[in-house]
Amino acid sequence: MSPHTTRLVRLPRLKVAAVGVTTALALTACGGQAGSDSGKTTGADDSPQGVVSQAAAKKIADHYEEVNNKANAAQDEKLLGTVEAGQVYAMDKATYTLFETWPEKEQKAYAKPFSYRDREYVIPKKDTATWFAVRAKSSANSKNSVLLVFDKVGGTYKMVLSLWADGEEPPKLAVDRHGLAEAVDPGTKVGKLAPSDIGAAYADFLETGGKDEGKALASTTPVENAKKTYQRSSTEGAADGMATEKFFAKSPADPSVYALRTADGGVLALFPAAHKQESLLKEAYRSNAALVPNDEQSALGATRGVLITDMFEGQGLAELTDKTARITAVDFQHVDAR
Questions:
Q1: Can you tell me the distance from the alpha carbon of 148 to that of 154, in angstroms, rounded to the nearest whole number?
Q2: Which pLDDT band holds residue 259 (cuts at 50, 70, 90)?
Q3: Cα–chain center distance at 260
Q4: How do residues 197-250 score in pLDDT, each as one tens digit?
Q5: pLDDT over 90 at 126, yes or no
Q6: What Cα–Cα distance (Å) separates residue 141 from each residue in 6, 109, 159, 170, 188?
Q7: What is the pTM of this model?
Q8: Whole-number Å distance between alpha carbons of 162 and 170
Q9: φ, ψ for residue 180 (rounded to 5)?
Q10: How far apart are CA 92 and CA 333, in angstroms?
Q11: DSSP at 37
Q12: Which residues of 276-289 are buried (b: 16+ CB within 10 A; e: fewer)?
């Protein structure tokens, strides 16, 4: 995982061989008791138990931090897989593949060790969830907070989602008198959408501009960016209009959705998302031209031809109430190209 901030994903620049035209394709993504590291929890012996204790949650987060730093420094995918799973792991494996295509300054920043500070452990009741969350700030980025989800995968707690607040901090979460958070079933509708519906609603803006499932989403920066991407791709295409460009929703690497009750009675959802982008050279140009992958696409496996397909894995953060559904942050990583 990057210790710094939300990834800013820029879709690839495609070059047309024998024609020499380039185009920029841009999409901005990039239990126990809840308490802080220093806080102590109290309660009677018959108090309800959390998924893990606060001490256990701290130990898990500490271990993740240590191993992740070592894996980042060595670009060790196997080592990273001992502490990551789900969307985060799918995205970070691709980050390692693309590492050599980055500017030297970005490589050094990514490999630099970091720590999670000002942690708050958000731990649901044991009989309502298998996972817990940590809200914190990074030593490399003290401005925005990050919300980390750890779930049990193969008998071991691993980080599965990691969302940075992208200019808008998440709402305060609800906790009971024992300090335990309330996990919400992802399939439970809150207003027009359930947490498990948010990923498809977001993808609808890339596919159709928000004509279908996307109608239920409020206008926010991530949604408006996706809508603009659809509008640009529909009108301009790719390669200076010599190729078409379309987006299609796909099943994420890990479909797991996590949701928590907020203090105002709403729901905070952390959801996976994924899509593919197809750039297709128009028939009139196919006899004397081809789309040429850039360095990033080549590193992921793409070769020149009439069609280049790029795959993206991502994650998002949304706030749901009876009246509205707002996506406040999205984070995508280019994971494959053919």
A1: 19
A2: very high
A3: 17
A4: 999 999 999 999 999 999 999 999 999 999 999 999 999 999 999 999 999 999
A5: yes
A6: 10, 11, 19, 17, 34
A7: 0.87
A8: 13
A9: -95, 140
A10: 8
A11: S
A12: bbebbbeeebeeeb
